Amino acid sequence: MKIFFALIVNISISAAYAANSTGDFLVKFSPDKLASYRGTMLNALPSDAKVEDLELAGWHRIQLPKSKLHSLSMHINALSKMPGVLYVQPNYKIRLLEQPGMAELRAKVKDYTSKNFEIADSDGAISETPSVPKIDNPAIPPRNNPGRGEDPLLDQQWGMLDIGASRAWDKSPSTNNVIVAVIDTGVDYQHEDLVDNLWRNSGETGTDSQGRDKSTNDIDDDGNGYIDDVIGWDFVANDNKPYDLASEPIELIMGGGNPGHGTHCAGNVAGRGQNGKGISGVAPNASIMVLRFISQKGEGTTADAVKSLKYAIQNGAKITSNSWGSEGDDPNESNENRALHEAIQECQANGVLFIAAAGNGHQGVGYDNDSDPKPGVPASYNDDIIISVAAIDSNNQLGSFSNWGKNSVDIAAPGVNVFSTTVGSNYSDVVLDLFGIKVTWDGTSMATPHVAGAAALYLSQNPGATWMQVKEALLKSATPLSDLTGKLVSSGKLNVDRLVNTQ
Ligand SMILES: [Ca+2]
Ligand SMILES: [Ca+2]
Ligand SMILES: [Ca+2]
Ligand SMILES: [Ca+2]
Questions:
Q1: Largest CA distance in the chain
Q2: Confidence of residue 271 (pLDDT cuts 50, 70, 90)
Q3: Among 57, 148, 445, 501, which one is most buried in terms of CB atoms within 10 A?
Q4: 0.85 exceeded by the pTM?
């Protein structure tokens, strides 16, 4: 880390603040100077500023109260000049990758509602909307003694069949020892096909010294900083129930969100296999750690992404599945999101794989989705721990929306018309079917969980493998496709049959 760089960057940062002053920013201290300068920093800020240590290489989140926004640039400048401060940046927003077709649907709904008072008044306008529970934070059920039997909807998962999952499971059924953190909008943790594969924090289960259930005793029994975090954490609402979707899907879509995104992703990582219900994930018995940092508006903050990654590292996840990022529409993007990048470097230092969606285009008129010249962040950061994933359809063609990159995107996986778990113990490949526009579950967001599940399957079979060996095995076993030649590092699509049967 070069100290002089902070000064150069801060000049352009000031412009970013001028455009969008929220008073929410991140400061990095030199870790070895943190103890001696933290007090000085606090003195330089208004007493009612909120300061939170992100416990990542000296990074702190600072939130100024609204009443002090007029003096924001003064505080930024003062902090920048302090000897212990290496870097100051906005607490950049991070977005869910936009679903192809969603913008068109929004426009149509907007047009309709401008002419009608309520969507519900329309005759036949809504042909299919998923039913969802209207309460947030329902109770977290215990594991449910899964039954046995074929998964009746497996034949609807074209992607699972395409990657050779059945042949892989014959050789190597996954174990629950491998934990995959699904870092997203949360998960319907009551879903019948997910509940038995949720990670259970052993430090927050069982009974405490007074005979109370540790998962509900309002005590941080394992001292990890989170109270009753039995399946993960909700960094948006700051509670122990990272529940996905508790409002009308249409409302959520109009607010920028995506109904049940995290639940859909979790199913293809580790929907419970051979339990006589629903579908199967690529790793049919792996453990899903649920980390929610993206709100119902489809966005989260860098600070909460950092905290999610730290949580995954500190609580035993070996793989993180990340279907989010920047789409190049943020004017601040030319300034690197250094805090996020350092959190990913922390993943690498701890051997925790970062599987990332390559992105769904939207990078500008005439742009051909090549991530090499115009990187999608964080998937294209140059860290080996990242596996960047493109989307293919059932005809071995790259999804028309999918980013690719000979040097920056690693592998393709099923990402068009993807069938999986949805909120309310449902299953679908359709997000919404409204006004004649059918939005299906398409996207590099949907491709990514397949690769995260494959990494878990491989680690079950090879528990001693390093992250680099897992990555090499994934890329080496990919099936080369003519449509992907010269477009991806591996030039191929995920093949879990070969992954577990030829190692
Ligand atoms: Ca805890
Ligand atoms: Ca507890
Ligand atoms: Ca919650
Ligand atoms: Ca199942």
A1: 67
A2: very high
A3: 445
A4: yes
**Close Cβ partners of 395 (under 8 Å, ≥ 6 residues apart):** none
Q: Which residue has the tokens 């010269």?
A: 486
Tell me, in angstroms, the distance from the centre of ligand 4 to residue 325's CA. 29
DSSP per residue, 398-459: B-TT--B-TTT--EEEE-SS--EEETTTEEESEEEEETTEEEES-SHHHHHHHHHHHHHHHH
Interval between CA 293 and ligand 4 midpoint (Å): 26
Decide yes or no: CATH 3.30.70.80 for domain 3-91: yes
**Ligand 2 midpoint to CA 92 (Å):** 32
Residue with token string 């491709």: 447
The neighbourhood of ligand 3, an ion, using CB within 5 A, equals: 137, 234, 237, 239, 241
Expressed in angstroms and rounded, the spacing between residue 221 Cα and the centre of ligand 1 is 6
Q: Does the pLDDT value for residue 123 go beyond 50?
A: no
Gyration radius of the chain's alpha carbons: 22
| Paired residues of 480 in beta bridges | 492
Q: What's the pLDDT score for residue 2?
A: 34
C-beta neighbour count of 98 within 10 angstroms: 20
462 CA distance to ligand 1 centroid (A)?
29
Which residue do the tokens 């995290």 mark? Answer: 262
CATH number assigned to the domain with residue range 164-501, chosen from the 4 options 3.30.160.100, 3.40.50.200, 1.10.260.40, 3.30.470.20: 3.40.50.200
Domain boundaries, the chain: 3-91, 164-501
